[in-house]
Write a structure and sequence with these properties.
Layout (H helix, E strand, L loop, with lengths): L10 E9 L5 H15 L3 E5 L6 H9 L3 E4 L15 H19 L2 H6 L11 E2 L8 H9 L4 E2 L17 H5 L5 E2 L14 E2 L4 E2 L1 E2 L2 H7 L1 H18 L3 E6 L20 H5 L3 H6 L3 H18 E3 L2 H5 L5
Parallel strand pairs: 1-2, 1-10, 1-11, 2-3, 4-5, 5-7
Antiparallel strand pairs: 6-7, 8-9
This protein binds zinc ion.
Length: 308
């Protein structure tokens, strides 16, 4: 798929998939790719660099999707809303070197000659969707073009960002981020594609909690907004949605701890956990409905015409 596509009158829908730390990463990526093939979806994958390899990345690119960066280890240290410039530069540089080695390797470039957009690493999403002004500076220095970490008007208690005032007032449509704040319009050179949200985020975790019927109604309202404002719909899911299991209740989940500040309420993991067959079924239903309301687009294919 080329960087600038022909303009479609249909609402652009970006299915974005985070590849988080996962013991069964090859299997979860395979299930995701199979589902997307069945549904005719082109998607944007954001990979934690330490958890993927050349084989996995190649498989994703060969299936017509694109790959962006989702941090290096996606561990407790990678809270990009708190880290300073030097730490972020080191971590994102290491992740970028690894991923560019896979995405832009000579073999991939040779085979994707007519398909250049899939073979460039230009997109970023912070682990646990956390970023700050230093992230924006580092992304610019490392040649990134877009980010998708801001959840405009998300205010739910199921977030790992318990309080993020930046999200409350961030623009809903794609915008060029400011150098002094990623939540405001500016001239940093990095385009933000906000994850769709309205109080609750439009992500697979919300579906686990409220069900597919609720998400379809949510999608219908987002589509209505997009018809008026031309805003793309950005859905966030994870490959490990398809290999996870229902987790048992543990009393530690309700005992307050300092970790709640960076990781959110642990009880939410129990509340939102569900079996992988249910997650596959629900995502199939929801994504099918997305296909009826709009057309699937890679985030990079929108980034050229979104500067405001
Ligand atoms: Zn993640």
């Amino acid at each position: 798929m080329k960087l600038s596509q022909t303009k479609s009158k249909k609402i652009p829908v970006c299915v974005t998939v985070d590849i988080d730390p996962d013991d069964e990463i090859e299997r979860s990526v395979d299930i995701t790719l199979k589902l997307f093939k069945e549904l005719g979806v082109s998607a944007t994958f954001f990979a934690a660099a330490e958890y993927v390899n050349q084989k996995i990345v190649r498989k994703i690119l060969d299936s017509g999707h694109e790959v962006g960066c989702h941090g290096l280890k996606h561990d407790d240290f990678e809270n990009f809303d708190k880290l300073g410039y030097l730490d972020q530069k080191r971590i994102i540089s290491d992740a970028t070197t690894k991923l560019r080695g896979y995405v832009e390797s000579k073999n991939v470039l040779k085979d994707h000659k007519k398909n250049l957009c899939n073979s460039k690493l230009i997109g970023f999403r912070g682990p646990r969707v956390k970023i700050n002004k230093h992230t924006v500076r580092v992304l610019k220095e490392l040649g990134y073009k877009y980010d998708s970490s801001v959840c405009s008007q998300r205010m739910d208690v199921f977030s790992s960002n318990l309080i993020n005032l930046g999200w409350l007032f961030a623009p809903r449509r794609p915008y060029m981020m400011g150098s002094s704040s990623p939540f405001k319009k500016g001239k940093s050179g990095i385009i933000e594609f906000p994850v769709s949200a309205f109080v609750l985020p439009f992500i697979s975790t919300t579906m686990r909690l409220f069900g597919c019927g609720f998400m379809k109604v949510f999608l219908w309202f987002l589509a209505l907004e997009s018809k008026i404002s031309k805003k793309p719909i950005v859905y966030l899911m994870h490959t490990k949605d398809f290999t996870c299991k229902k987790i048992p209740f543990n009393w530690d989940m309700i005992i307050p701890s300092r970790k709640w500040i960076t990781h959110g309420f642990p009880l939410r993991f129990w509340l939102i956990s569900s079996s992988n067959p249910k997650n596959i079924k629900d995502n199939r239903n929801l994504i099918k409905y997305m296909g009826k309301l709009g057309s699937f687009r890679l985030v990079s294919s929108l980034s050229k015409n979104s500067e405001q």
